[in-house]
C-alpha cells in the first residue's frame, strides 16, 4: 500500500502540468490563510471568542468562512455571500427564460452566469456585513460606529469577500477545479487542531467508552464517505466497429457515480440552514418583546440538536443533491453524443429511449447517494449528547467536506496522469 502511494506521488512530481497546479494552489492557499489573520478594527477579541465557543451555530458558520469569522478578519464573511449568490442564480436559471437559454449556450453561457453571480455577490456581502455588525453590536462586542466608520467596515468586509472569490477563481483556472471547495477545505483543516483540542477536553480522560465511540464514529464516517463517493453504476455501452466486410461490437461502459454532485450539496445546505439561527440571534438584541420572543423560539427550533434543524438539514442536502446532479449531468446530451458516435445501450433504442433510460437509472442511484449524504450530515447530531462533545456536529460536516474534496482532487490528479499516457499528448 505504501509503495503504491509512493509510486502515485512520484508520478505526480514527474508531471510538469500537475506540479504547476499544485504550486499555484499552494501559493493561493498561503495568501488566503495570511489574509485570514488580518483583523478588522474595533473588535473585542476576547468577547468574540467567548461568543463563538458558546454558539455551535456560529462555530459552524466560522468553519465555512475558512476560520476567518472567529478572528473577525477583513475576510470575516468568507465565501458565504458567493455561495448564496450561486444558489440564487442556479434557481433563477429554472425560473427566468433568458437565463435558461443562456445556460444552454455552453461555455460562453456559463461564463456569463458566473459573471452575474459575482455581481450578485457584492450586494449580498454588503447586507451580510451589516447584519454581522448588528449582531456583534447587540452582543456588546462592537460599539456603535459612526456612519463613516460603519461604511468603511462594510466596504472592507465586502472587499474581503470579493478577494476570497477571486482567490477561488484563481485556483479553479490555474490549479484544481472548484477552488471555492478547496478554500473551504483549507479553512476546515486550519481549524482542525482547535476542534480536536476542544473535543478531547470535553471528553473526560477516564471515560474510555466515549473516546472509543468518538474515534470509531469518525473512522466509520470516513470509510462510508470514501465508499459512497467511489461507488459507480456501470451502464454497458456498445459501439459498432467495422472489420473488413462485417462489423463487430466494441464494448465499453458509462460510469454513473452515486454522488454526482460531490460536496456542493453540503455547502449549499449549510449556508441555508444557518440563516434562521443567524436571523434569530440578530432579533434577540431588539427591544421589541414580541420579536425577542419570536427570535427565542426560532433559536430553540433550529438548535443543532433539535428535530426541526436536522430534518431541514437532511431535506436541503437531499434536494440540492438532486438539483445539482441535474445541473452537472444531462442525459439528453449524453444520449445525443452516444448516437453521433455510433454507441448504444444493449436492449435500448438510441435517442429519446436512451435519454429516458439514463434518467431512470440516474434517479434511482441519486436517491441512494442523496439519502446517504443527508444521513451522514445529521448523524453526528444524534451522537452529540451521548459523547458529550458540543462541536461533534461541526466535525461531522467538516469531515464530509474534507474527505469529499480530497477524493475529488485525487480523482483529478489521476485523470491528469492518464492524459499523459495518450499518444500525441503535448507535454
TrEMBL record:
One of its GO terms (biological process) is protein transport by the Sec complex. It is found in: Cell membrane; Membrane. The chain crosses the membrane at residues 21-38, 50-70, 119-136, 148-168, 174-196, 208-228, 258-279, 313-330, 365-383, 389-410. GO terms for cellular component: plasma membrane. Keywords: Cell membrane, Membrane, Protein transport, Translocation, Transmembrane, Transmembrane helix, Transport. It is a multi-pass membrane protein. SUPFAM superfamilies: Preprotein translocase SecY subunit (SSF103491). Component of the Sec protein translocase complex. Heterotrimer consisting of SecY, SecE and SecG subunits. The heterotrimers can form oligomers, although 1 heterotrimer is thought to be able to translocate proteins. Interacts with the ribosome. Interacts with SecDF, and other proteins may be involved. Interacts with SecA. HAMAP family: SecY (MF_01465). NCBIfam families: 3a0501s007 (TIGR00967). Belongs to the SecY/SEC61-alpha family. The central subunit of the protein translocation channel SecYEG. Consists of two halves formed by TMs 1-5 and 6-10. These two domains form a lateral gate at the front which open onto the bilayer between TMs 2 and 7, and are clamped together by SecE at the back. The channel is closed by both a pore ring composed of hydrophobic SecY resides and a short helix (helix 2A) on the extracellular side of the membrane which forms a plug. The plug probably moves laterally to allow the channel to open. The ring and the pore may move independently. This is Protein translocase subunit SecY. It comes from Candidatus Woesebacteria bacterium GW2011_GWE1_45_18. The lineage of its organism: Bacteria, Candidatus Woeseibacteriota.
Amino acid at each position: 500500500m505504501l509503495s503504491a502511494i509512493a509510486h502515485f506521488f512520484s508520478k505526480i512530481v514527474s508531471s510538469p502540468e500537475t506540479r504547476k497546479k499544485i504550486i499555484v494552489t499552494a501559493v493561493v492557499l498561503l495568501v488566503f490563510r495570511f489574509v485570514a489573520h488580518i483583523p478588522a478594527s474595533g473588535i473585542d477579541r476576547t468577547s468574540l471568542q467567548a461568543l463563538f465557543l458558546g454558539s455551535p451555530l456560529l462555530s459552524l458558520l466560522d468553519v465555512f468562512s475558512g476560520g476567518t469569522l472567529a478572528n473577525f478578519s477583513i475576510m470575516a464573511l468568507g465565501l458565504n455571500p458567493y455561495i448564496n449568490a450561486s444558489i440564487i442564480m442556479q434557481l433563477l436559471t429554472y425560473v427566468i427564460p433568458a437565463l435558461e437559454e443562456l445556460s444552454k449556450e455552453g461555455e460562453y453561457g456559463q461564463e456569463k452566469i458566473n459573471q452575474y453571480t459575482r455581481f450578485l455577490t457584492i450586494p449580498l456581502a454588503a447586507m451580510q456585513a451589516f447584519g454581522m455588525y448588528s449582531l456583534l453590536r447587540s452582543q456588546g462586542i462592537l460599539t456603535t460606529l459612526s456612519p463613516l466608520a460603519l461604511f468603511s467596515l462594510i466596504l472592507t468586509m465586502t472587499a474581503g469577500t470579493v478577494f476570497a472569490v477571486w482567490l477561488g477563481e484563481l485556483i479553479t483556472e490555474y490549479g484544481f477545479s472548484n477552488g471555492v471547495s478547496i478554500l473551504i477545505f483549507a479553512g476546515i483543516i486550519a481549524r482542525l487542531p482547535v476542534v480536536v483540542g476542544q473535543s478531547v477536553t470535553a471528553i473526560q480522560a477516564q471515560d474510555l467508552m466515549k473516546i472509543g465511540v468518538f474515534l470509531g464514529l469518525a473512522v466509520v464516517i470516513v470509510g462510508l464517505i470514501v465508499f459512497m463517493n467511489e461507488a459507480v453504476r456501470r451502464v454497458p455501452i456498445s459501439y459498432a466497429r467495422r472489420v473488413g466486410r462485417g462489423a463487430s461490437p466494441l464494448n465499453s461502459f458509462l460510469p454513473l457515480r452515486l454522488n454526482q454532485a460531490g460536496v456542493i450539496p453540503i455547502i449549499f445546505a449549510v449556508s441555508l440552514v444557518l440563516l434562521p439561527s443567524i436571523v434569530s440571534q440578530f432579533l434577540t438584541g431588539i427591544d421589541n418583546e414580541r420579536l425577542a420572543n419570536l427570535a427565542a423560539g426560532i433559536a430553540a427550533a433550529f438548535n443543532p440538536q433539535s428535530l426541526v434543524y436536522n430534518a431541514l438539514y437532511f431535506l436541503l442536502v437531499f434536494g440540492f443533491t438532486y438539483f445539482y446532479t441535474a445541473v452537472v449531468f444531462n442525459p439528453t446530451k449524453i444520449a445525443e453524443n452516444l448516437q453521433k458516435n455510433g454507441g448504444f445501450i444493449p436492449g435500448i433504442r438510441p435517442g429519446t429511449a436512451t435519454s429516458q433510460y439514463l434518467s431512470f437509472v440516474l434517479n434511482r442511484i441519486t436517491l441512494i447517494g442523496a439519502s446517504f449524504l443527508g444521513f451522514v450530515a445529521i448523524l453526528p447530531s444524534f451522537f452529540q449528547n451521548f459523547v458529550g462533545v458540543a462541536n461533534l456536529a461541526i466535525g461531522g460536516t467538516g469531515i464530509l467536506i474534507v474527505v469529499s474534496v480530497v477524493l475529488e482532487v485525487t480523482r483529478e490528479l489521476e485523470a491528469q496522469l492518464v492524459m499523459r499516457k495518450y499518444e500525441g499528448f503535448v507535454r
